[in-house]
Amino acid sequence: MLSVNNLSVQYGKRLLFDEVNLTFTPGNCYGIIGANGAGKSTFLKIICGLQEANSGSVFLEPGKRMSVLEQNHNAYDAHTVLETVLRGNRPLFKIKQTIEELYSKSDFSDSDGEKVGELQIKFEEMDGWNAESDAASLLSNLEIPDQFHYSSMADLDGKQKVRVLLAQALFGNPDVLIMDEPTNDLDYDTIMWLENFLANYENTVIVVSHDRHFLDAVCTHISDIDFGKINHYSGNYTFWCESSQLAARQRAQQNKKAEEKKKELQEFISRFSANVAKSKQATSRKKMIDKLNIEEIRPSSRRYPGIIFEQERQAGDQILNIEGLSYSLENETLFDNIHFNLARGDKAVLYSKDSRSVSAFYEIINGKLIADSGKYEWGITTSQAYLPLDNSDFFDSDLSLVDWLRQWSQTEEEREEVYLRGFLGKMLFSGDEALKASNVLSGGEKVRCMLSKMMMSRANVLMFDEPTNHLDLESITAINNSLKNFKGTILLATHDHTFAQTVGNRILELTPKGLIDRYSNFDDYMGDKNIKELRDKLYSS
Q1: Residue 24: pLDDT above 60?
Q2: Predicted TM-score of the model (pTM)
């Protein structure tokens, strides 16, 4: 179907890919993973024809169609929503355009009539007469209501555009579907719809994502970029992650017999297969189980940052009291009349369909923003650490990372360079990287610095607004595990499904008409029909 042959990519002295050979086959979904900077997006651009490799070739079987999720959200602002989706199937749309152009001719001839007849036969073979209804159905599934279908793309907000471009990529059942971070800016309901759609998709899917739940739900294979090579492994992300770590531990066990190691790996596959068989996305999961192979399990070179949150002291019973808090932005109510008490040990997922609500709420309780009405009060024994959505104000100087982190030191020992370098080393800033200027960091490096700042505070209340943004899968896993083990109180806003499900024990949903407050895990909350009816009512205009 789609193959990559002897592909090599080099930037100066840096070799990104070295003679990569791969085949992508129908009925499988391949999750492309690798450390930040490994070349995931570059690889997708090359197989899409958007970037040239230094050597090698990409081959797509003749007659097969490739569809790519558009990254430029403003690319179709001159077109209507429905036309944007139809343009996803270029051969079909071209025939449609040609027929319309021929019919619009003032001197329409018999020859033109014959051409129209031939094109209409092709159009019918491609199911063209159902194209608009199919496109409308896709849009509705992705929460773009009928009244927007003939609107200009320029009139939609950013999140609506993302959904339309997703519909465009899916439209017409492409033979190869390529998506780079498809869950960005999608809410949970839309992500769940996409997971179910892709889990039962019969053609080839190639995806880059930092959403572990998404990769687990849709992938039959993981394609790992490591040491300049890309290798396919049967199974989803969790299987690859756990099996590669098991293989790494076994490699370190020099005295363990080969037979014992093989038995351990076989038992791991059996346990994993039994759990996967219970998955809701049954179709792709069954394919995956059939192909799990002990011989494919290999150690990974991935490095995990040392993220450990500890409390300097335990807080008392009173953590945070919210009374009647309300906030509007540009005459639009984001949340209204919010009341709740946060208890010690709560790990609350702070959620809203409008992410602006969550960020505004955080800024209010951290003294950065003034509410329209209501008040909040922190318990006198609490200490807070906060990771905001926008951290740019913290990185406007040219301080080295050592000096930057020193600003948050609380003891003489913590001000010592040896201590600070050791701390930064655990967060993967080793050697000269610790002397980097703080104003030239990447997004992921800034988040790791902010996490270091939070760890040094030893606060007993942690607040996070989208902590997984810009992080690689290894860092996401490390912070996820740390928050599961944290003994204090957490307020967590995240679009990472696995994060929400594994950390949260309470859901606080901010709506324009009040608060939904439930002690529950995230999956049970989102799957509760009564809560869904209540949510629909509180978000309705």
Answers
A1: yes
A2: 0.85
